[in-house]
Design a protein that fits this description.
This protein has helices at residues 18-29, 47-58, 79-83, 131-145, 151-154, 161-166, 175-185; strands spanning 6-12, 34-40, 65-70, 74-75, 87-90, 95-97, 102-103, 117-118, 158-160. It is built from seven helices and nine strands; from the N terminus they run βαβαββαββββααβαα. With 209 residues, the chain is α/β, with parallel strands linked by helices. Helix content is 31%, strand content 17%. The chain has a domain at 6-99 and 155-199: Alpha-Beta Complex (2-enoyl-CoA Hydratase, Chain A, domain 1), CATH 3.90.226.10.
C-alpha cells in the first residue's frame, strides 16, 4: 500500500489536548511522508502536555518528516514541540518568549542561570498544577529546550524571526521561499533542499531524551 504523502494537524494552544494526542497518534500510525503541525492560539501549552507531544514526535517512525509551523507567538513550554521539527516555519511577525524563573536565594551566585531558579508559578499558564508536578515537568522542558537555545541568555526576552535565524532555528537563506512555496502547494520537499541549519544547536534526532 502506498504511503500517505502528507498530513496536517492544527494544535490549538491552550485548549484541551486529549483529542490532539489521539489525532497525532492516529496520523503517525499512517506513516505519512510528511506531517505538518500548525500551532495557533494566544495561550500556552502546559509543560506536561508539551512533554507528551515531545515523546510522540521523537519516537515517530524515522521516515516521517515533521514540519512545525508557528502561526502564533509561542510562550514557555509551547516552544518545545515547535522546536522539534525537521523543518521549522514561523510567520514573519512571529516570536517566542520564556518567562525567567524565580531565582532561589543564593549567597554565592549573583546571577544564577535557569538551573538555579524556581520554575514559573502555574498561574503563568492559566491552569492549576500541583507545584511538584509542574516544577518537575518544567525542568524537563527547559533541559530539552536548552539544547537548542541558551536559556540563560534568552529568558525574559522576546525572540523574533531574525533572532531565531541567528540561533540557527530558522533558515536564513533564499531556500526559505522554496520551502514555504512547496509546503503551501503540498509538494514534497526534496531532502537535498532541507536547510541543515534548521536543526539548531543539535538535531531533533540526537538530543537527550
Amino acid at each position: 500500500m502506498n504511503a500517505v504523502a502528507e498530513r496536517r494537524l492544527v494544535v490549538q494552544l491552550g485548549q484541551v489536548y486529549t483529542k490532539t494526542i489521539r489525532d497525532l497518534e492516529t496520523t503517525l500510525a499512517e506513516t505519512p511522508r510528511r506531517l505538518i503541525l500548525e500551532f495557533i492560539g494566544t495561550q500556552s501549552i502546559c509543560p506536561d502536555m508539551a512533554l507528551i507531544l515531545h515523546e510522540l514526535i521523537v519516537e515517530r517512525p524515522p521516515e516521517i518528516q515533521i514540519v512545525t509551523h508557528a502561526r502564533s507567538g509561542l510562550v514557555n513550554a509551547s516552544v518545545l514541540p515547535w522546536i522539534l521539527g525537521d523543518i521549522r516555519i514561523m510567520r514573519r511577525t512571529g516570536w517566542i518568549y520564556f518567562n525567567p524563573p524565580r531565582v532561589r536565594k543564593s549567597d554565592n551566585e549573583s546571577q544564577p542561570g535557569w538551573r538555579d531558579g524556581e520554575w514559573w508559578d502555574p498561574i503563568d499558564f492559566g491552569f492549576f498544577h500541583p507545584p511538584i508536578h509542574h516544577a518537575a515537568d518544567m525542568e524537563q522542558v527547559a533541559r530539552i529546550i536548552d539544547q537548542f537555545l541558551p536559556l540563560d541568555e534568552i529568558a525574559g526576552k522576546h525572540l523574533g524571526v531574525e533572532d531565531l535565524k541567528q540561533y540557527g532555528l530558522l533558515a536564513g537563506n533564499p531556500i526559505d521561499s522554496v520551502l514555504e512555496s512547496n509546503l503551501a502547494e503540498g509538494t514534497q520537499v526534496p531532502s537535498s533542499q532541507m536547510n541543515k541549519s534548521n536543526f539548531g544547536r543539535t538535531s531533533s534526532r540526537t538530543f537527550d531524551r
